[in-house]
Amino acid sequence: MAETAPLKNYQLASAFTYGPVKSRRCGMSLGLNTLPPDVKVCSFDCPYCQCGWTEPTAKGRGVGLKYPTVKEILGEIEARLAELKAAGETIDTMTFAGNGEPTLHPKFREIVEGTMALKKKYYPKAIVDILSNAQTVNRPAVREGLRLLDRRIMKLDGGNMRVIEAVDKPLAKFDLPEIVEGLRTLGDVTIQSMFVAGPVDNTGDEDVADWIRCLDAIRPVAVQVYTLDRHPADKRLKRVPRARLEAIAERARKAGHTVEVY
Ligand code: SF4
Question: Does 44 contact ligand 1 (Cβ within 6 A)?
Answer without folding.
Answer: yes
